[in-house]
Amino acid sequence: MSARIVLGLCFLVSVAFSCSPDPDLEADASIGKSSDAGARRDAGSAADASAAAGDDAALPVSDAASGDSDAAQSEADAAQSEMDAAQSEMDAAQSEADAAQSELDAAQAEVDAGGLPDATASDLDAATEPGPDASTPDTGAVEADAGPAIGEIECGSSVCSGGDQCCLQNTAGTLSFNCASSCSGTTGSASCDGPEDCGNAELCCNTYSLGAGYMPNCPVESATITCSSTCTSLFQSQCPSSGVMRLCHSRADCVEPSYGNCCPSGVGQFLVCLPYAVGGCVN
């Protein structure tokens, strides 16, 4: 009995010693945990510092990119301004062309209606000189062109005679003149340059066709100038167009109503009867 009691006590004593925590081990464990926490804090601080440094380094790059974008936008704005200015100039030029065409159309409408342009009509109201000259305004016209002798035809800078005709040739927009017995295959021909070359009270009449362009520089596509018993003037103020004009040397040759001005035709030295006065008209 005593022996069992002793053995039981010994067992309890041994268990008590084996289960008690070792103070040194607990201290070491606490120190280890503290060291791990400090290390984690140091690592976190380093990461935060690195991220902040990265953000600071990214700022100059972002600023540079923003500057490039602003410069590109400025160039685009400048290019757009140049395009807008060019478009404005084109619009202004078109407006001027439209205005000029409107004036020509208005003049043609009055001619077709048998009247005179407004400027000519107002000049007529102010005219005081009696006689035939009162039918047309004073435009600073020179003395009547006597022209070459009967049977002679003005042909550019030359004069055709001896039965020769004046041949007109349009080559790439340039009109040339020469005298020949026949003008076959040419752009046009003239066998008279005024009524004096025609007998039996005939008229020197030009039947013509003009190509596309702007007055007074429309290209001549065809022209037949010859003596005719009838010649009713039909002048078109735009081209392409076709028409009929009487050749003249003075106002006295222009007896049709509304066609009382003897003026340059723009083709060689030929003068024609026009519905209104232009530079170089003769009395």
Can you characterise this structure?
The protein has 283 residues and is of the alpha+beta class. The chain has a domain of 137 residues. The chain is 41% helix and 19% strand. The protein has a six-stranded mixed beta sheet, with no helix packed on it. A hairpin with a 6-residue loop joins strand 9 and strand 10. About 19% of the residues have low confidence.
How is the topology of this model organized?
Layout: H1 2-19, H2 23-112, H3 118-126, E1 153-155, E2 158-160, E3 165-171, E4 174-180, E5 188-190, E6 203-210, E7 220-228, E8 241-246, E9 261-264, E10 271-274
Parallel strand pairs: 5-7
Antiparallel strand pairs: 1-2, 3-4, 3-5, 6-7, 6-8, 9-10
Provide a compact summary of the structure.
With 283 residues, this protein is α+β, with helices and mostly antiparallel strands.
What profile does the largest beta sheet have? 6 strands, mixed
* Helix content bin: 40-55%
Rg for CA atoms? 53 Å
> What is the number of strand segments?
10
Number of helices: 3
Question: Which properties best describe this structure?
Answer:
alpha+beta; single chain; 283 residues; 3 helices; two-stranded antiparallel ribbon; 41% helix; 6-stranded mixed beta sheet; elongated
